[in-house]
Amino acid sequence: IPLDKPINQTGLMFEQDTFYLPENIGFTKDGLQLLYNPYEVASYADGTIVLTLSYQEVGPFLSDKVQ
Fold it and tell me: DSSP 3-state assignment of 51?
């Protein structure tokens, strides 16, 4: 997701062009995974949208228990 453009220019459809966390969040070996169900941020045809943020990116926001 680019920092210098509105998020909805990426093809996603967040209400009021504002990012929000999904209800489905998990931890994988690759990083923190955000899972958006169909219709949450894209059309049904796009299916489930999965965003994986590396632990390097999200580490400062996680508690010591998770890191």
Answer: strand
